[in-house]
Amino acid sequence: MNQGKLKTAILGLGEGGKCLLEAASQSDYFELVAVADKDGRLAEQTGEQYGCASYDDYRQLIIQGGFDCLLVAAGMHSCEQYVKSAIKNKCNILKLAPPARDFEEAAELVRLAEDAKVRFAVANAGRFAGGFVEFQKDVRQADSGQYVLMTAECEVGEHEVAAWQSDAKLAGGGVLLYDCYELIDEIVASFGVPEQVYSVNTSTAGDRQQRLYRSEDTAVVTMVFGEAFVGSLTASRALAGGPENKYIRLHTKDKTLTVTNCGFSAIDRRGKNEEQKEYEPDRLGCMKKVLENFALSILKPDKNELVSSGSENLRNMAVIEAAYLSARTGFPEQPGRILQMARLEAINILERAEGKRKIDI
To answer: Does residue 165 belong to any structural domain of this protein?
Structure first.
């Protein structure tokens, strides 16, 4: 490390990778040593701009090594084995959401990081947005027994979807996994893991056969948090055309709380505004806070707890896994059951490893 800076490489230079790159370059905690992208010309230009090495082959980046952490913005279909290799080489990982293509893959990455004693974190920038911070304050102060209904909506807005994200095998999921991940993260952070999840997913593919191979474009998810508290999430890429719009709305017996991309409001039962705050969209500023927390959790772990660790994000992945399973079975599914199965598997792995050590001894 150079004067407390983490030698850092960035894998993937798409829109998300550029945001990570800009945030890291403006931070006092990172020293950028390498970038990699399948587009060799883009990688070379970026390397020249930031004075670091560049690669068009992810494997070569990992082989060269020499860095403390890897910021991953590429899709897991193109870099899973390289991320695993980096973890095994004692490299800390910060992955843009989602952390993986499915729950099993995410759980394996978490286990590898725990075994290697390195950080594996997910860059949920929405947690640092002003509106969500205010929303969390009110949610924590409210009596959960007063909760009546939670509604959430995700309008994707005008942005290009990578071709591989439409391929169910490569992507692992569609609008729920890629466009709603941070929204689901905020829901779970606010209200916990729902007891049951029921989902209906659809695709705009031309015929039924095509839909088997296409990731979903539209989803409606119902969540049961308790006997008297339920929620719903609606998302669709098919409605894209205007600006991105994502919100969570909590109805309690006394008032309604709403958090959006850039605002927060609290309205009482008579429709009177109790609180109204607006914020300028600042994705880069939020990402800087994500990176600062990630860096300090490595450099000064005793004083800085990691926000949005990989193990914590398994809760989000369990909710998404339950939604996809429900869409296939037509029945409600339990995220808690998925998490419990993962815990049992982790215990079995530890017991097998301990048994092997005893035999070796």
So the answer is: yes
Residue 107's domain comprises 6-125+285-316
C-alpha span between 17 and 37 (Å, rounded): 10
Question: What percentage of the chain carries pLDDT values higher than 70?
Answer: 90
For residue 302, give both structure tokens: 């005793």
Rounded Cα distance between 134 and 190, Å, is 12
User: What string of H, E and C letters represents the secondary structure of 301-349?
Assistant: CCCCCCCCEHHHHHHHHHHHHHHHHHHHHCCCECHHHHHHHHHHHHHHH
pTM of the predicted model, to two decimals? 0.92
Four-point Cα dihedral 345, 349, 350, 355, nearest 10: 140
Total Cβ atoms within 10 A of residue 188: 19
Looking at the fold, whether 89 and 53 belong to one and the same domain comes out as yes
Cβ atoms 133, 285 nearer than 8 A? no
More confident of the two residues 350 and 301: 301
Secondary structure in 3-state letters for 168-184: HHHHCCCHHHHHCHHHH
HSE-CB at 88 with a 13 A cutoff on CA atoms is 9
**Residue percentage of the chain with pLDDT more than 90:** 70
Q: How far apart are the C-alpha atoms of 246 and 240, rounded to whole Å? A: 12
d(CA 184, CA 205): 25
State the pLDDT at residue 207: 60
**CATH number, domain at 193?**
3.30.360.10
pLDDT digits (tens, 9 = 90+) for 187-199: 999 999 999 999 9
Whole-number Å distance between alpha carbons of 119 and 113? 6
Task: Count up the domains in the chain and report the number.
Answer: 2
Q: Which two tokens stand for residue 278?
A: 């607006």
Q: pLDDT per residue over 7-45, tens digit each?
A: 999 999 999 999 999 999 999 999 999 999 999 999 999
Strands 147-155 and 69-72: unpaired
> How long a stretch of residues is the chain?
361
Q: Which two tokens stand for residue 149?
A: 């209904």
Q: Spell out the alpha helix ranges (H) of 258-308.
A: 283-299
What's the CA gap between 297 and 169, in Å, rounded? 34
Banded model confidence at residue 361, pLDDT cuts 50, 70, 90: very low
Which has the closest alpha carbon to 92: 310, 350, 266? 310
